[in-house]
Amino acid sequence: MGGHNRCYQAGSRQTLFQALVAIVAAGASYAWAMNIAPAPVSRHISTPEAMLVRALLDIRDSKFSSARDHIDSLLVANPNFRLAQLVKGDLLLARARPINSIGNESGGSAEQVAGLRDEARVRLMRSQIEPLPELAPRYLLQLPKKEKLALVLDSTKSTLFVFENTGKTPRYVADYYVSIGKNGLEKLREGDKKTPVGVYHVVSRLPKDKLTDFYGSGAYPISYPNEWDRMRGRDGHGIWLHGTPRDTYSRPPRASDGCIVLTNQDLETLATKLQVGSTPIVIADSIEWAKPDEVESLRSELASSIESWRHDWESRNTDAYLLHYARKFTSNGLNLAQWSAQKQQVNAAKTWIKVKVSDISLLLYPGKEDMAVATFEQDYASSNLSNRMMKRQYWIRENSKWRIVFEGAA
Amino acid sequence: MSRISLLALGAVLLLVAQMQSGFAANSYEDASKLFKQGNYASALEKIETVITANPRDARARFLKGLILTEQAKPADAIKVFTSLTDDYPELPEPYNNLAVLYASQGQYDKARKSLEMAIRTHPSYAIAHENLGDVYAKMASEAYDKALQLDRSNTAAQTKLAMIKDLFSGSVVPGKGLSDTAEPAVAGATTPATAEKPATAAAKPAAQPAKADIDAVLAAVDGWAKAWSSKDANAYLGYYAPGFQVPGGEARANWEATRRDRIVKPKLIEVTVGSPKVSFDAEGRAIVKFRQGYKSDSLSTSGTKIMTLVKNNDRWQIIQEKMN
Asked: Which contiguous run of DSSP H or E holds residue A56?
């Protein structure tokens, strides 16, 4: 052959860049890609992810050799980072022939490649997350002193946020890339491959040695289905926070059967802080952020509703006490009428009642409904019976007044 | 010392070494013949005597590397080519063959580095570029396998890079690479084993090129590109004059065979001729300078090509070509 010139690479890599922009554009957030700001200092994202994002931005800026350096060094430490391997393949192949889209020539199935492209989009989107100190998720109304942290999942950002309980406005600690159910959110049925939306808590810990490699560094089942899910007839089970298999650093954003999947490194970091049996996790479609005074006004509304309920119970004013319960109320299979009848009878037999409520946790339910979950320690004493228990109540706004729609032992 | 003079010095050393012993030259020819006949054991025996007599004989050592490769002794062949790159770092061919051997062992990163060395010494070295493209594709495929957990191990052996069979096959193309400003007219002088005359050195523009001639030359270049694009090897070779200066002083038949292979092998080829400029020298030969674009299913390149055409029986044919 007559010979070839060394400039043969430039054109084909340009198309790789265009493919990247296309991926970004395909996502919801195109604007930020064009206006990249440095990540805020307070944000702690994992090194492999930071390196991957730098490589993707290098590709966008046509700095291919810098992109390769970032990918190569991240792969030294994390050879199981699939998306990084795919980008590496593209960067290499682009030197041999034109590529018109990320992973297009990789030989993977359409589903596999789409999953990894989606991960690229999400990782880039995540690089733009900037937690603002003056905002917090509006779900975290009040956390008891014993609770060290709260988790809030933003599914559109494939991100699990960790907040520290300060007694006042929760403080951002970290956030992690997560995968959720293949079919997205709003779990309804067993096997629907969806992740539930709601307020849950971490119920137990399954150590690594009791699990197959698939779950990675461990698993933390959460309390799906909760009381509200059951009231609405939702079923299924086994929604866990867990890690990834040895050969997989991370999975695409929508990949699980409903579980929330973290990288093993992130799960291990999180595990040191988790309080099994209590740490709350709020799973939302897209987090609603609010200012402290908005959160405070909602919190005090609910706190005074609980106080009023406690007071009316203690004063044995059963009619007033029963006004705190919603029309749709149920508890242990009793509807409001049956419950009212039972309470009238029980309370009438007492000469005195004392109710103490402490360690209140107040979490707003994500979604359209105005609902909150209150969990607290209840110290009940009366002329003929005393007990201490953890109680959970679901409060809904009914005719502008907060009322209890479910009540039971937590 | 500039790279050109280093190369020239290397060439002088080689020639001196080869002239030292007529016996050695004969034995080399014998070994080469045996090698071509597939009689590797005897060829190896023969070439060893040549090397013993003259340990600096690059050509002989190169042949030894080829023989060992054919004998499926890649580790030994790698040693031979590596020592050649140590002693003659200006020669691209040993780097290329080293890369081929590394690639055959799946050591793609080493292969890549060797090819980059070959290209560094000769930036427009076509085979090294093609091989490098293949190595990148292979490395990409490995990364993809890890990304997607594909099992393509059974196809791993399918990529076969091109081994260079003759020393100086790539480096003889006149005016190549060593200097971007190399004029087509000063051809040949920098490289060793070529008998090429600096024939065009005295080139002067002719008085008035006729428009008809320009059109005819452009039509020939266009036809040449079309024949290549349509993978019509016969038509393509028909554009080359009987006196065509085969790169590397290779036998015309060998060159034609290689060209046929390169034209037939890709599934798809697209050759484009961009902004051609025609001039004529004192001997009435046409010199066409254009941007050559080449795209196949495995490679995409572009570069400036300078083609010299002569008129034979009313037909413009290529007498010399080179990429800058």
From this structure: helix A47-60
